[in-house]
Design goal:
Helix content is 13%, strand content 41%. The chain contains 4 helices and 12 strands, in the order H-H-H-E-E-E-E-E-E-E-E-E-E-E-E-H. The protein has a 6-stranded mixed β-sheet with strand order 5-12-1-2-3-6, with no helix packed on it.
């Protein structure tokens, strides 16, 4: 009988380390970029997000200290019927600390593709001197057992195709709906340049063009996400992680 030989073979396979088996018979399959793109952002369990908000601000300060800009905010919870943006404008005249800047004589060409990028697109192009520009995006993720209280509505409600506008010596700003999202655009006075910030169609764009000198530009977008930390049962959210810890004993 050959039973002892089969038994010996079975015992040998049982004690072989997993990496040896993997190297002999397992062949990894490459996942294409298109397939990976469908998996991005899918790690949050259903119903885990209990609050989501966006805060955006755009400001431009010229050489004389004049500041033009706007800030907008939106917060969505389970009880929210329709997302709404509230806009407040920033209009601060200079305090005489600076000297009037000369008209901008810079020339910037190209850049038409910046408006069609996917994801986050940030650009600062300068053809002047003494300028400072910031493009900032931040994501704040926190946990709570209930959604935070809705902040009181501040500013003007942005509705339909109506834009919220303001202007002073620094330039003019227009905040409007764009492509299902929101757009904040500043056209600086005295040919100093322009800046654009928008969130729409799954993308975020921050684009600044500086044609003059001694300008300070700020674009800020902050995403606030609150996750529910009160799961359906104790340990339900980390059950998969607990199973993965057991792989350490096998050498992984």
């Amino acid at each position: 009988m050959k039973t002892p030989y089969w038994l010996a073979t079975a015992c040998l396979v049982a004690v072989l380390p997993l990496p040896a088996l993997a190297s002999s018979g397992f062949k990894p399959i490459e996942i294409k970029d298109a397939e990976l793109s469908e998996l991005r952002g899918r790690y949050v369990m259903p119903g885990r997000i209990i609050s989501f908000g966006i805060v955006m601000s755009t400001t431009w300060r010229n050489a004389t200290g004049d500041v033009i800009g706007a800030a907008t905010s939106m917060q969505v919870q389970q009880s929210t019927i329709k997302p709404q943006f509230y806009v407040s404008t920033i209009n601060e005249p200079g305090k005489g600390g600076g000297t009037p800047g000369n008209p901008g004589t810079g020339n910037i060409i190209g850049g038409a593709g910046l408006g069609s990028g996917q994801g986050v697109t940030q650009s600062v192009r300068a053809a002047g001197d003494g300028n400072t520009a910031y493009n900032n995006v931040s994501i704040d993720v926190s946990e709570a057992n209930q959604a935070p209280a809705l902040a009181p509505n501040q500013g003007v409600l942005l509705t339909g195709d109506n834009a919220v506008t303001a202007s002073n010596g620094a330039g003019s700003i227009a905040v409007s709906n764009n492509g299902g999202g929101i757009q904040m655009a500043i056209q600086a006075s005295n040919n100093q340049g322009s800046t654009l910030q928008q969130v729409a169609q799954g993308g975020l764009l921050q684009n600044t063009r500086l044609l003059g000198s001694s300008n300070l530009v700020n674009n800020l977008t902050q995403l606030n996400v609150v996750l529910n930390n009160n799961g359906p049962s104790a340990g339900a959210l980390d059950c998969n992680l607990s199973q993965l810890v057991g792989l350490r004993n096998l050498g992984y």
